[in-house]
Amino acid sequence: MVMLPDLRQTVALTVTLALATLGGLAAQAMGMPLGLLMGSLLVTAVITALDLRIKGQGPVMPNRFRVVFVPIIGVAIGANFTPAVIAEAPGWWITMLGLLIYLPVAHALGYFLYRKVGKLDRATAYWGSVPGGFIESLAMGEAAGGHPAILSVMQFLRLVLTIIGVPLAFGWLTGAPVGSASGAHLGTGAEIALRDVLILTAAAVAGAFMGRALHLPGWQVTGPILLSGVAHAMEWTQAVPPDWMIGAVQVVMGAGLGVRFAGLRAGAVARAAALACVVAGLLMVLALGFALMFYRLVDQPLAAVFLAYAPGGLVEMSLVALSLKMSAIYVTAHHVARIVLSVLLAGIGNRLGNFKD
């Protein structure tokens, strides 16, 4: 891949952020759930997929830029560490153990559809249906002989369709708007003192470095969650990142997902994309089924348990939890476990079944 000169990269990034922000604001004004995230995603995805360019350059969102914003989510989630939440945590073991059943069932369901209906090769079908660990699944699937482009589409659509489908499903089930569409706020509009700014910034930066050094799953968000949680539990601060900052994170996350549509060939991946839509829908139905079985046993609302099992990304599902005023700590803890267990169980299954081509 040819690297853009710094000036062109900066201009392209600025245009991308401007278009993503306009799309996010428009979606928010129309009452779309998680409008800033969804609108920025849709605008950049459409522009990227249609290969529309300004002065020869399409939308860009460098990962090194995106990573700067992700720790903010961790700091916001860490603010939910309260004595009440900590006291509840031991009771979550039931739904944690439920992941050991849910994940193999979800993986087997996806593999069956991709293999028997989609007629994909074993490696692509197997690693494309892993219900967690986006990057790990792509790397391990390609190493096993899977088709990189099709794997990317299958795993990416699992994330995107879940992000889009979950808030819409909540709105349909409850008959009321959710998240930003209902006027709910992810952060706080109140001003915070300089001391709070320094503490939250330290939690974000030091937490990210700590998470990376310890090789934590989703280190950009889990590290800051831990340090922010300590700071709030010790009552060093009660501050939360402001609304505008959480809104900026949504725009960056949405644009980062949207630009991944670059280079996808519709003809080559159409069948996989269609099946990915079916699989994503079935996995959400499966997640709802497990939530119905377990939610009364963990003293969590049905919606929170459903979100904990939803097959989306860690960062994005955490954002949804914050938006819907769910127990963000509960949801995030389950998605960290989902990523780890998905990769571990997929590796064990691969050794037993030798899903290579």
UniProtKB/TrEMBL annotation:
<feature type="transmembrane region" description="Helical">
    <location>
        <begin position="156"/>
        <end position="173"/>
    </location>
</feature>
<feature type="transmembrane region" description="Helical">
    <location>
        <begin position="92"/>
        <end position="114"/>
    </location>
</feature>
<feature type="transmembrane region" description="Helical">
    <location>
        <begin position="244"/>
        <end position="262"/>
    </location>
</feature>
<dbReference type="GO" id="GO:0004497">
    <property type="term" value="F:monooxygenase activity"/>
</dbReference>
<dbReference type="GO" id="GO:0010468">
    <property type="term" value="P:regulation of gene expression"/>
</dbReference>
<dbReference type="Pfam" id="PF05145">
    <property type="entry name" value="AbrB"/>
</dbReference>
<feature type="transmembrane region" description="Helical">
    <location>
        <begin position="274"/>
        <end position="295"/>
    </location>
</feature>
<keyword id="KW-0503">Monooxygenase</keyword>
<feature type="transmembrane region" description="Helical">
    <location>
        <begin position="301"/>
        <end position="324"/>
    </location>
</feature>
<keyword id="KW-0812">Transmembrane</keyword>
<feature type="transmembrane region" description="Helical">
    <location>
        <begin position="36"/>
        <end position="54"/>
    </location>
</feature>
<keyword id="KW-0560">Oxidoreductase</keyword>
<dbReference type="InterPro" id="IPR007820">
    <property type="entry name" value="AbrB_fam"/>
</dbReference>
<keyword id="KW-0472">Membrane</keyword>
<keyword id="KW-1133">Transmembrane helix</keyword>
<protein>
    <submittedName>
        <fullName>Monooxygenase</fullName>
    </submittedName>
</protein>
<dbReference type="GO" id="GO:0016020">
    <property type="term" value="C:membrane"/>
</dbReference>
<feature type="transmembrane region" description="Helical">
    <location>
        <begin position="66"/>
        <end position="86"/>
    </location>
</feature>
